[in-house]
Amino acid sequence: MTIQGILFDKDGTLLDYHATWMPLNRRAALAAAGGDVVLAERLLVASGYDPVSDTCVADSVLVAGSNDDLGICWAEVVGGDAAELTDRLSRIFEAGSAETAVAVEGLGETLEALAAGGLTLGVATNDSEEGALNSLAPFGVLDRFDFIAGYDSGHGAKPGPGMVQGFCKAMGIAPAAVAVVGDSRHDMEMGRRAGAGLLVGVLTGSGGHDDLAPHSHHVLDSIAGLEALLGDVAGKRRA
């Protein structure tokens, strides 16, 4: 079936994960730790931060989890109510996401070209829906998307299939005609469980080629290669 829609992950796919999120993660960890710098570092490490490489581990809670997942993880370290901590973290992330967001190279041009080719575009993120809107707004690309869902939008969180199913229902597209594009195994599993026709990993997040290749149909350096890939895939299917 011809690909008619693309559902993008946000962080690590449309936005540079580490440049966008590490300032926010540090801000949130310090708040959760009550200003204790040492404890804040413990929280980051517990959720997937590697202080030696100054990066986050692929598919860790920091990279792939929802705010709920992070709240639960950090509450196990600092104590207290996980739901209350999640609310605090969500407010920090939503308030600061536009300030720290860094787009991947060629974001606007790539989305424009894909939309001009008649493709329906959407976003599926384990960030909140408001966080997604706030962090993408500075780049003038929100009008390229017909569907934006966060973990709190009513479709469930990744790696569940709900966001893909919600996209398909809202846009009237069969799952087999959808390409899921992301930087983590959570993205690929979401697409596979929903029956998406094409799973594409990108290397602009924390996942490497070896992390993504076993779980995807193709791995690209970035979303800039999507237009060419879809052309190749369409040609092979016609053949």
TrEMBL record:
InterPro entries: HAD-like_hydrolase_sf, HAD-like_sf, HAD-SF_hydro_IA, HAD_sf, PGP-like_dom2. It comes from the Bacteria. It catalyses: 2-phosphoglycolate + H2O = glycolate + phosphate. Its EC number is 3.1.3.18. GO terms for molecular function: phosphoglycolate phosphatase activity. Keywords: Hydrolase. Coiled coil: none annotated. Belongs to the HAD-like hydrolase superfamily. CbbY/CbbZ/Gph/YieH family. This is phosphoglycolate phosphatase. It comes from Pelagibius litoralis.
